[in-house]
Amino acid sequence: MNKERIATSLPGVPVLIGLLIVSLAFVLGSFWYLPALFPAEEVGFAQLIGILLYLLVLTLIVLGYVGLTPVNPNEARALVLFGRYRGTVREQGLAWVNPLTLRPKISVRVRNFETSKIKVNDHDGNPIEIAAVVVWKVTDTAEALFEVDDYENFVAVQAESALRNLATSHPYDAHQEGDVALRSNPVEVSDQLRTEIQDRLEKAGVQVIEARISHLAYAPEIANAMLRRQQANAVIAARSRIVEGAVGMVEMALDQLSEKHVVQLDEERKAQMVSNLLVVLCSEHETQPVLNTGTLYA
Q: According to CATH, what is the number of the domain 111-218?
C-alpha cells in the first residue's frame, strides 16, 4: 500500500528570483550571442552546436519555471514521476519540485455531506426512512489518491452502506429498558455510526470526524399506524403514572386519618373512601359530589 511521505522540494521564492535573473541574462545575452553565432551566410558544424546549446539553455529555463508549484492552505500536492509516487508537498506557499512530475491537487480541508434518505427495515422489520450527516477529511493523500478509484465517491457509498447496516441492527423505538434504539439513543447511535464508517474508510486515508443521524421517520405506509401506537403508549404511561400517584395519595390520607384519630373507619368504609378518592384523582372530567343523607348501611 502507498503511504504518504514528505516529498523533496525546494523553496519556490528563491528559485523564482534566480530564474528571473537567469532569464534576464539570457535575453540580454541573446542580443550578443545570436549575431556572433552567424557571422557568415553558411551555417557550419560550430554554428549547429551553438544553436543546440542555445536551445538547451532555453529549455532548462522553461523547465525551471514549470517546476514552480503553488500549494494553497489546506491543500496538498502529490508528486508522481513516471508512474511512481514520490511524496507529497503539504507546506503552503511556493515550492519548486521536479518539473517532470505530475502534481495532482488534493484538498485536506474538513468536508461534510448528507446522505440521501434511504428506506430500510429496522431491527423489528418496520420500514423506516433514515439519513445521516458525515464530517470527514483526508489524512493520507497517497491512500486517498492511489488505493481507491474515487475517494469522494468511496466515502459517499461506504457511508450509506454503514448507515443501512446500523438501521437494521437497532429498533426504531426501545421496547425494553437498556435497549439501544435509533430514536431514543442518539449519542450511542452516532458513535457507533462514526466507528463503522471509519472502519470502512481506513484504507482510503480518510478520517471521520463526526457522523450523526439527520433524518429519522417511519415510512409513509406505516407512519399513521405507528403514530397511533406511540399515542397509545403515551396514554398508558400517563395513566400508570396517575394511578401510581393516586394510590400513594389514598394511602397517605388513610394513614393520616388513622394517626390523628379524625374518624374511625371500618373496612367497608375504607373501601368506599378509597373508591371515591380514586374516582376523583383518576377521572379525566370534573367530579360531581353526591351528598349522602343517610348511612352506608341504610
A: 3.30.479.30
